[in-house]
Amino acid sequence: MSAFVLIHGGFCRGWVWAETVAALEADGHRAEVVDLPSSGTVAADLGDLQADIATVRRTLDRTGTEIVLVAHSSGGMVLTEFAAHPSVQHSVYLAALWPQRGAIARRAVRVASYRAG
C-alpha cells in the first residue's frame, strides 16, 4: 500500500483532509497530514513559505520512501519544492498552484489570472 502526505491550502489547517485520511486508511494506505506554519489564527505565530517547506521536508524525511505527496490550493507552492525529493514517488496537485520551482506565490497567481483571462 502507499503512503500519502497531504498538504492543505491557505486559510485552513490539516483538518480539511480528515475524510480523505479516513478513506485512504480504510483502503489500507498510510496517510499523514502536514499543518503548515504559514496558516493559523495567531498572526504572531505564522511562518512563511520557507517554514512550510522545512516542515514538509521533516515529514518526508521521517515518513520514508515511495510517498504520494498531495497538495491543495496554495499548498502547491510547497509541493513544487519536492518534485525531485527521493522519497516522493508521485506529486498530486489538487486544484493547486503549480509554479516553477522557486517561484513566489504572487507571481504564480498573476500568471494564472492572465492565462485564464
Topology, pairings included?
Layout: E1 3-7, H1 18-26, E2 30-34, H2 49-63, E3 67-73, H3 75-79, E4 88-96, H4 105-116
N-to-C CA distance: 41 Å
Strand order of the largest sheet: 2-1-3-4
CATH H-level superfamily: Alpha/Beta hydrolase fold, catalytic domain
Radius of gyration from the CA trace? 14 Å
- The CATH topology comes to Rossmann fold
Would you report the number of β strands?
A: 4
Helical segment tally?
A: 4
Q: What would the average pLDDT be, to the nearest integer?
A: 85
Beta percentage is 15-25%
The stretches of 5 or more residues where confidence is low (pLDDT under 50) are 111-117
Structural domains: how many: 1
Q: At CATH's second level, what is the architecture?
A: 3-Layer(aba) Sandwich
The top level CATH class name: Alpha Beta
Broad structural category: alpha/beta
Approximate helicity band? 25-40%
Main sheet makeup: 4 strands, parallel
Q: List the helices and strands in order.
A: EHEHEHEH
Shape assignment: globular
Commentary on this structure:
The chain is of the alpha/beta class and 117 residues long. It has one domain (3-116): Rossmann fold (3-Layer(aba) Sandwich). Helix content is 35%, strand content 22%. It has helices at 18-26, 49-63, 75-79, 105-116; strands at residues 3-7, 30-34, 67-73, 88-96. Strands 2-1-3-4 form a 4-stranded parallel β-sheet. It is globular, with a radius of gyration of 14 Å.
Short description:
The chain has helices at 18-26, 49-63, 75-79, 105-116; strands spanning 3-7, 30-34, 67-73, 88-96. The chain has 117 residues and is an alpha/beta fold.
